Amino acid sequence: MACSLPPGLERPDYVVVGAGIVGLATAYHVAGRCGGCSILVVEKRHGPGHGDTGRSAAAFRAVFSSKLNVMLALSSIEYYMSVQRGGTDLGMLDLGYLFVLPEASVERFEKYASWLRELGVESRWFDAVFLEDAIGLRRRPGEEGELMGLPEVAKAVLFQPAGVLRPERLVEHYAREAKERGVSFLYGCEAKRLIVKPRPELGVRGEPLPWQEGYVAGVELASGAEVRPREATIVAAGAEAYKLLEPIGVDPHFRPKKQRVYVVRAATGPLRRLLRAEGFNRHGFMPFVLLPRGVYVRPVPEENSFWTGGSTRLGHPLAWEPDPQPEPWIYEYGVAPVLRSYLPAFAAAASPDAAWAGFYDVSIDSRPVVHSPAEGLVVAGGTSGSGIMKADAVGRAAAALAEGADNVVLYGGRRVELWELGLTRRRLEQEELVI
Fold first, then answer.
1. What average pLDDT is seen over the chain?
2. pLDDT value at residue 36
3. pLDDT in tens, 72-85
4. Which of 66, 168, 203, 259 has the greatest number of CB atoms lying within 10 Å of its CB?
5. CA-CA distance, 411 to 142, in Å (whole number)?
6. Contact indicator for 28, 330 with CB cutoff of 8 Å
7. On the CB side of 324, how many CA atoms lie within 13 Å of its CA?
8. Which stretches in the chain have pLDDT values below 70?
9. pLDDT of residue 1
10. What is the Cβ-side half-sphere exposure of residue 388, based on CA atoms within 13 angstroms?
């Protein structure tokens, strides 16, 4: 892949690798903090948000078991809402996240709801009778569901703020605002490797040697051109970050995990009624629904359809693919049987109308990783499927760390110590609500 540097940008102050939502938010906030410095964003695809950001389910929530995740998500959601109130339509609909629960999960979610309320996340409970009337939810999953061991539904809880947005509009917002702050973009140009240099440099084989200090001096592009920033190289390449970090001996502490999204058009009367479910939110649409066993249903009102998928954990590799494709059998055998067991409106949807696949960059505890593993290098990733939900906060944190700060003030005034997102002093706090 050939690419050429814009004149004068061989030595920017900062270079950001990746123009997904985290890279864009990072570049925007670096520009906001440093005021007038030069920033170059390098992206191998031919536009912003063309990777995993554009292949996500594009939803938002602040419902997590980790307090840090809640803070990051709430701050980002509040920022996005402020952008929308300011006249930039991000397609945000606060539809809520509806967790459909078996009896065994009710007490745990009651505890979540109690402490989440103290942080600003509201909740409402619904019984099985209401759910049957509102969305046709089947309390007992039927013969097929019994064969799969699906549990009986006891209750459901709706959390807000939560809902859906248009990812391309959020991408456009950050890209536009970053350009207004002077950020330059180089698209269609792959970052091939990080340039590691020793101090002092002797020019001998194997540097940096055990007794030398090493640092990241920049990045080499596919064309062979080198970008050597004055301050730092920020790797925000999501699930592909390992390809730059591992060759220089840096463990990213997050790995690619394939995810699939299947589109079901609301082509029947029952599905159209399901899409227009009343009683959950002011918009009069069905909320984002989480069924037992990790299957979700995301309403897409503007397309008169649903996006659906499910968690795949044990038995599926942590591995990246150059052109990920959604496997039809995962929908047929893994997603559709759960859908029709609980929501009979999907019984007539024999196959999806469209589908795509992308990757999560999954961290060890499903919380973002923002750290500086070497001089001249900042890594921002590990969003574990909630990149859009937390991008603004993660971008602010990465920008602060690149500038050498110890903490960051998020949108809305919440302060986070950067070591909480790093690795050296990180307290492992396993996130339990990963979708």
1. 95
2. 87
3. 999 999 999 999 99
4. 259
5. 47
6. no
7. 23
8. 1-2
9. 44
10. 26
